[in-house]
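// run 5 | inverse folding | seed 20
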């Protein structure tokens, strides 16, 4: 079985988290990489999405909720400390890039005591989305990441994200009802949730050895902060600064 890396890194700034998320892929690892992380309150839009179509901007401005952009596609998500983010980086080409992550998250949720099903761009329990998925490819690998609503309430998510627009476009988010583990009656705590994700990843993809961030990953994170994640135009419309 493959021996992968379980990266143990904690950043408190959402821009640093998003830059490190992308850096894990950009360094082209030779074996799978798993990273579990949480953000402070923010809204994160997909690579090509328009903020005005996805985000309740006046509400975010009123409450001081930053709106950021990530490198992957997929829909807009609400982040807060009650939401666990799961990043899985796989080397080489893959025909079904979200399948491995979907299997990991399904197995973890099943272990926690719910019956999940994989649906449109996410993992559902009954009719409510519990996890959203997104993917980003390079020539050397792919990054698949997921949000897992652990304690975040559906009402809080709806406060800052728009409803489905009447004129849907290809890059618009696919809105679905959401419900967290807590709203399904489960309050296992984050250590137990993270342990379930790690156990599922190891069972499906091989052993993951804990390690700190590498020097190459941190250097790439700094470069991405300069060209993207500290650059206001990146978050506003996807334009990046010259290196």
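// decoded
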């Amino acid at each position: 079985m493959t021996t992968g890396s379980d990266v143990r890194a904690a950043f408190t700034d959402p821009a640093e988290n998003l830059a490190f998320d992308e850096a894990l892929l950009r360094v082209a690892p030779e074996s799978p990489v798993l990273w579990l992380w949480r953000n402070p309150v923010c809204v994160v839009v997909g690579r090509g999405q328009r903020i005005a179509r996805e985000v309740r901007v006046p509400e975010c401005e009123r409450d001081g909720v930053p709106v950021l952009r990530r490198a992957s596609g997929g829909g807009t998500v609400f982040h807060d400390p009650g939401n666990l983010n799961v990043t899985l980086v796989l080397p080489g080409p893959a025909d079904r890039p979200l399948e491995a992550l979907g299997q990991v998250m399904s197995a973890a949720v099943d272990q926690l005591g719910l019956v999940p099903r994989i649906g449109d761009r996410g993992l559902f329990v009954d009719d409510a989305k519990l996890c959203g998925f997104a993917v980003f490819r390079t020539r050397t690998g792919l990054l698949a990441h997921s949000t897992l609503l652990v304690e975040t309430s559906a009402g809080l998510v709806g406060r800052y994200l728009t409803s489905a627009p009447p004129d849907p476009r290809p890059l618009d988010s696919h809105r679905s009802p959401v419900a967290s583990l807590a709203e399904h009656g489960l309050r296992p705590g984050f250590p137990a949730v993270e342990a379930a994700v790690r156990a599922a990843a190891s069972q499906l993809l091989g052993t993951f050895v804990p390690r700190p961030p590498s020097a190459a990953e941190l250097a790439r994170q700094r470069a991405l902060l300069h060209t993207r994640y500290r650059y206001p135009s990146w978050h506003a419309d996807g334009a990046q600064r010259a290196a």
